[in-house]
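User: Hey, quick favor. My workstation is busy. Could you predict this chain's structure for me?
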Amino acid sequence: MDTVLAPQTSLRESYWRWIALFFQAFFAFGFYYANDNPQAIKTRLLDPPTSLTSFEFNLLYSLYQLPNMILPLFGGFFIDYFGIRLGIGIFSFVVIGGHALFTFGVFESSFSVMVLGRLLFALTGENISVSQSTIISKWFRQKELAFAFGSSIIAVRLGGMANNIVTPRIAHSTNSAWFPCFLGVLTCIVSFIFALVVIWMDYKADKTEGKLRSQHQANDPSTQIRLSDLKKFNFFFWLILVNSLLVYSVLSAFLSSANDFLVKQFNIDEIEAGNMLLIIYIVSMCVSPLIGMIIDRIGQRTFLLNVATLLMIGSLLMFLLIPGDEDTLKLLVALSLFLFGAGYAIYTATQWSCISLVVEEKTLGTAYGIAAACTNGGGALVLIIVGHLQDAAKDYKAGYAWSTIFLAVLAGFGLASGVMLRTLNQKRNGNLDDPLLTKRKASIAIAEDLLFVDHRNNIN
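Assistant: No problem, here it is.
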């Protein structure tokens, strides 16, 4: 009798999993907060004493993304081979060291030290996302997995929001660029403590079960990365990849300079600019879970991908047309940010769910690794081009105007690839627009949850 009940007493099968989810979601909070510290203080980094050029500033982001053209392909393998707990610990610790070195570079006004810090930060930054996905998958059943991942997205958005609220204010109150970055280091340390809690809870759960129950076993061929798996991907996957590369490049390029863009283009105070950028993160945080629920029930993924891209194009064009001398300027800027945030939310909620529908389960990890690597590579290249466009212009306003036009054109190519994807999916009767969750399945899932709760209550 005891043998039968033992697995059911695992932490992963009890209410403790919701406590674990909190720490699993927020151990990455510090990384997402610190990653965009440079964006929130770009205006100060461009001014003396650091006096970076736009190209040098964008290089700080490109140097993060370029190594991650490859590193996500190996992050999952490291976790599979050495274990998720060791991966979480090492990845989180290295992020602290990288951002501390970057902060020291800002303090010394040394661009070379800043570059070294961003490179160290980049070594494990994306792999924190990989480890977060892995530990959540390990703890939650398939019917709870979407909710768990949705909760982790909230932590991601909160990290970006906190950076845009706190960092400009700290920079303004201290009249420095290095101290807000130091606060980012402290945030990473707090997240590392959260990571240690995650490691401890996972260890206790494994000890209770007496065995590993991870989905990612080192000897499981379905999770191993092989170059030979590339030939198994169909045209749908590669077209989704092209679409992701184009659209995510627009997203990363705009968000990396958004605060300074509002300051220079519309003469908005840096603190107020940070507040206005919260619109993007709030809309994204609120809309993404809702869109996920809708997608499960109605499908129409290719349609939503194109709607999201259109919203982003409309937002960028609207930025170009906003006059700088009208009383309604801030209202129009807020509306443009709302449109961009809505497009951001719809796209991120839709795009990643498409990949799992066009590849075999055996190659799913490889597919996501390739997608992450390519989007980082594309984003790095676009950031370099945008930096050159801004530096080549006569003034900041002209530079941002040309870079905004470039991003709108790039998004237009993304829209073209999205339309092609939708047409191909309809022509070949693909499953990208099919719903995954019907009302009947939803009712069965709810009934199973209720039965499970009743069963556990009876046992206790």
